[in-house]
Write a structure and sequence with these properties.
Blueprint: E1 3-8, E2 19-24, E3 32-41, H1 44-50, E4 67-75, E5 87-90, E6 119-123, E7 127-129, H2 138-142, H3 144-156, E8 166-170, H4 174-185, E9 189-194, H5 197-207, E10 211-214, H6 221-228, E11 234-239, H7 246-252, E12 253-261, H8 276-283, E13 286-289, H9 295-307, E14 314-319, H10 322-334, E15 340-344
Parallel strand pairs: 8-9, 8-11, 9-10, 11-12, 12-13, 14-15
Antiparallel strand pairs: 1-2, 3-4, 3-6, 3-15, 4-5, 5-7
The protein binds NADP nicotinamide-adenine-dinucleotide phosphate.
NADP nicotinamide-adenine-dinucleotide phosphate binds next to helix 1, helix 3, helix 4 and strand 9.
Domain Enoyl reductase (ER): 13-343
GO molecular function: oxidoreductase activity
Protein name: Enoyl reductase (ER) domain-containing protein
């Protein structure tokens, strides 16, 4: 078998533009491994790319998807630390081994081709081996790549989370739910906000966060978060809403706390953009822009997740057919999910 199914977006207006192609299975070069993809995890970014709403440049006819987990099936002659049969995940930006991002166009499924294929060849240096005893499914492992590393980077990238500190995550999507699992594993006090009581109920059943706030019913969720932390304010906040929620995050953060600038989902009135600089100054807060994270963070995340056997919530798995993948995009865009939406690749 030398051909495989690969999905591309020849145009990017609607999810239905996704098109199936038969293409050659790549031959790994000396420093590459060939990976049989077993699962792809979708992200909000994938929906933005498919509809030309992503704020950064996209490759023509891009193969979508940044997050893959799979099995090594072939090893280049110069690769010594992987063997056939190893379970692996691939770093979001294959060129970023450590340190800050060098650009905004090297992420898989965006400026370069992604992982929505049966087989991918990648530089061994961009690949992380999953320890054999790790209990997570391929979908859970794939989900570590983008939202997982983003959550890790927010909590540990600049001023590491310390046991006993507090963490607030906005909403119940992939990034926030992964951060919740990591924060609980670190012994933090956790606060989850959501637009939905039903979602919060399910999150309580799945993860037992310390506190939940419905941000629709309690619009001043910042004051509530300050109250819940005994008047101190929150130590780490994952900012998912962006301009529309940053003022509240700056009200909720403790003096000297860290806000990971991650998402941009909240509506906002351009006439009422807050004076973020002054608010941050008043709190001596760290506002840190995050672009996923380097491969070394994926390594650290995999070590923790594997040793502590942490489990992540996959809301639904779809099949590797055009129709099902399009349905997966719609499911993610509907915002009805908690955690992750994934595609299982046969
Ligand atoms: N900078 C980075 O490196 C990076 C990495 C990953 C993701 N992101 C960005 O982060 C955002 C989330 O990505 P994701 O993949 O985690 O998304 P997702 O799984 O689709 O989850 C989105 C969730 O965000 C919550 N949300 C929406 N508007 C909100 C608001 N105004 N206030 C609080 N929560 C709100 C909703 O939760 P409820 O329904 O529970 O309210 C929604 O379910 C996106 O903007 C994405 O582009 C950035």
């Amino acid at each position: 078998m030398s051909q495989q199914t690969v999905f591309r977006f020849p145009t990017r207006n609607v999810f239905d533009d996704l098109t199936s192609y038969q293409e050659a299975i790549p031959t790994p070069s000396r420093d590459e491994v060939l990976i049989k993809v077993r699962a792809v995890s979708l992200n909000s970014r994938d929906c933005q790319i498919a509809t030309s709403k992503y704020p950064f440049a996209i490759k023509e006819r891009v193969i979508p998807g940044s997050d893959a987990a799979g099995d090594v099936v072939e090893v280049g002659a110069g690769v010594h630390d992987f063997a056939k049969g190893d379970r692996v995940v691939v770093s979001f930006d294959n060129t970023r081994l450590y340190g800050p991002a060098k650009d905004v166009v090297s992420g898989q499924g965006g400026g370069v081709d992604g992982v929505m294929a049966q087989y991918i060849a990648r530089s061994a240096s961009a690949v992380t081996k999953i320890p054999a005893e790790s209990p997570q499914s391929y979908s859970e492992l794939a989900s570590l790549v983008c939202t997982g590393v983003t959550a890790w980077n927010s909590l540990y990238g600049i001023k590491p989370l310390i046991a006993g500190q507090s963490v607030l995550v906005q909403g119940t999507g992939g990034t926030s739910m992964t951060a919740l699992v990591l924060a609980k594993a670190a012994g933090a006090t956790t606060i989850v906000t959501s637009s939905s009581d039903e979602k919060l109920q399910k999150v309580k059943e799945l993860f037992s966060p310390d506190f939940c706030i419905n941000y629709t019913k309690t619009p001043d969720w910042a004051a509530e978060a300050v109250k819940l932390t005994g008047g101190k304010g929150v130590d780490h906040i994952l900012e998912i809403g962006g301009v529309g929620t940053i003022e509240k995050s700056l009200a909720a953060i403790t003096q000297g706390g860290v806000i990971g600038i991650i998402g941009y989902l909240a509506q906002y009135d351009p006439a009422k953009i807050p004076n973020v600089l002054l608010l941050a100054l008043g709190k001596e807060a760290v506002l840190r822009g995050i672009q996923i994270g380097p491969k070394c963070m994926l390594d650290d995340l995999v070590t923790l997740v594997s040793r502590q056997k942490l489990r992540f919530h996959i809301e639904k798995e779809f099949a590797f057919t055009r129709e099902d993948i399009v349905s997966a995009y719609h499911a993610l865009a509907s915002g009805k999910h908690i955690g992750k939406i994934c595609i299982v690749v046969e």
